[in-house]
């Protein structure tokens, strides 16, 4: 019964979070004057987006409140390139089950940023 009366003197050390393959340069917070929002541009690294990047189309995950104008200003502020066109796609979150409980993934918004020929965005992985 001595197990319950003793206090633990050792602190439990937390394991450091595993570093993901996140893009460091693109996650700079950009405050766009006149738009009143601050958000981060997170590049979407998938097989489809890497194929599109060869043709000058870059894909980003953006927050729900971001507009085309705000995304264009943010891309210009970070990479000093001027987008020709921006297309936005909204995706509804999926329903999931985990351990018998219902859950739902969050809704998502992604932006396709088209650049002129010759311009490109350098995205470096960790």
Descriptive report:
The chain is of the alpha+beta class and 126 residues long. The protein has a single domain, classed as Alpha-Beta Plaits, CATH 3.30.70. It is built from 3 helices and 8 strands. The chain has helices at residues 2-5, 47-53, 68-79, and strands at 30-31, 38-39, 42-43, 57-62, 83-91, 95-98, 101-104, 108-115. The protein has a 4-stranded antiparallel β-sheet. A hairpin with a 6-residue loop joins strand 1 (30-31) and strand 2 (38-39). The longest helix is centred in the middle third of the chain and has 12 residues, at 68-79. The N and C termini lie far apart (50 Å). Residues 18-25 have low confidence and may be disordered.
In short:
The chain has helices spanning 2-5, 47-53, 68-79; strands spanning 30-31, 38-39, 42-43, 57-62, 83-91, 95-98, 101-104, 108-115. It is of the alpha+beta class. Strands 3-4-8-5 form a 4-stranded antiparallel β-sheet.
Question: Main attributes?
Answer:
four-stranded antiparallel beta sheet; 126 residues; 8 strands; two-stranded antiparallel sheet; Alpha-Beta Plaits; elongated; single chain; alpha+beta
Question: What is the fold's blueprint, element by element?
Answer:
Blueprint (H helix, E strand, L loop, with lengths): L1 H4 L24 E2 L6 E2 L2 E2 L3 H7 L3 E6 L5 H12 L3 E9 L3 E4 L2 E4 L3 E8 L11
Antiparallel strand pairs: 1-2, 3-4, 4-8, 5-8, 6-7
């Amino acid at each position: 019964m001595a197990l319950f009366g003793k206090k633990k003197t050792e602190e439990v050390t937390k394991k450091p979070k595993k570093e993901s393959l996140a893009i460091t340069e693109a996650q700079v917070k950009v405050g766009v004057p006149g738009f009143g929002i601050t958000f981060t541009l997170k590049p979407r690294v998938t097989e489809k987006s890497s194929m599109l990047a060869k043709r000058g189309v870059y894909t980003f995950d953006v927050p729900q409140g971001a507009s085309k104008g705000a995304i264009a200003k943010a891309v210009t502020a970070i990479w000093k390139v001027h987008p020709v066109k921006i297309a936005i796609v909204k995706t509804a979150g999926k329903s999931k089950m985990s351990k018998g409980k219902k859950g739902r993934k969050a809704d998502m918004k992604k932006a396709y940023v088209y650049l002129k020929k010759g311009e490109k965005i350098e995205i470096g992985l960790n």
